[in-house]
Design goal:
The chain is an alpha/beta fold. It has 9 helices and 7 strands; from the N terminus they run βαβαβαβαβααβααβα. Strand 2, helix 2 and strand 3 form a beta-alpha-beta unit. Helix 3 packs parallel to helix 4. 41% of the residues are buried.
Length: 281
């Protein structure tokens, strides 16, 4: 679909790039000629992913441990990256979510979602943007959001709030930073199942036939999302700024995707809370 060197000469940082959609996008960026940096909290996962990509693709892939919930840690990571060369592209991919009755959320549980999804994305964007502006260097920020920014989403309220805030950041910075040569764009993916997200969002007891009700009748493929991301961060999309592209097979046109949870019993919610507590233990 793309020329092999579409992203040649670009240095790209993907947060949460050790697994799932982050790793899939990173792999595609390397295939298209980019130099890749992935960050996350689990150094073993990051390094294993980097080793596999280098072995499979032969490109330059670096793994950096960073907890993006810590602004000082983010700034230190960016300083270390810039010592070699400036970034060209930041992909805000790292996020957290789980289903819960909103009135049952503790402050700690809400912060566990808001911290990486909202604060982490903002910290990374500010740290990269400041350096780009000071050096007069062009840049692109791609944020991975969700269709909850359009529909709202019951039972994942902190995530919907955080993603909507990052969309507001995307639109706002498009105006503020666009004149400085910095583009901000976003993707709202629909169902692209990953092990982590499926465990948190689709536990036993939810509708097993949900995917068939997506208008296209299927979930998305990693390559489809990775190709869209590659286009949006490339120079070929140089006139796209402040926009969010929805890629969900039309699912958000039928609903937010959590309507089935309105039928859950108190016993089912209690079982979900207990399962989440075991995961945290």
């Amino acid at each position: 679909m793309f020329e092999k060197g579409l992203l040649a000469g670009k240095r790209i940082l993907v947060t949460g790039g050790g697994s799932g959609l982050g790793a899939a996008m990173g792999r595609r960026f390397v295939e298209l000629g980019a130099e890749l940096i992935i960050c996350g909290r689990r150094p073993d996962v990051l390094e294993a992913t980097a080793i596999q990509m280098r072995g499979d693709l032969g490109g330059k892939v670096e793994a950096i441990r960073c907890d993006i919930r810590d602004g000082a840690g983010v700034d230190a990571m960016m300083a270390a990256i810039w010592r070699d060369a400036p970034l060209d592209i930041l992909v805000n991919n790292a996020a957290a979510t789980f289903i819960a009755q909103t009135e049952q959320l503790s402050f700690r549980a809400a912060d566990a979602i808001l911290a990486p999804t909202l604060h982490g994305a903002m910290y990374c964007t500010l740290a990269a943007g400041r350096r780009w502006i000071e050096a007069g260097h062009k840049g692109v920020v791609l944020s991975i959001l969700s269709t909850s920014t359009i529909t709202g989403r019951a039972f994942t309220v902190p995530s919907a709030m955080a993603k909507s805030a990052v969309l507001a950041m995307t639109k706002s910075l498009a105006v503020e930073w666009g004149p400085k040569g910095i583009r901000t764009v976003a993707i709202a993916p629909g169902a692209f199942p990953t092990a982590g997200a499926t465990g948190q969002l689709r536990p036993d007891g939810r509708d097993p036939n949900w995917a068939s009700r997506i208008p296209l009748g299927r979930v998305g493929g990693y390559r489809e999302l990775s190709d869209l991301a590659s286009f949006l961060v490339s120079d070929s999309a140089g006139y796209i700024n402040g926009e969010m592209v929805v890629q969900d097979g039309g699912a958000h046109l039928r609903g937010s995707g959590t309507e089935d949870l309105l039928q859950w019993t108190d016993a089912q919610w209690e079982q979900q809370r207990m399962a989440r507590s075991k995961d945290r233990a």
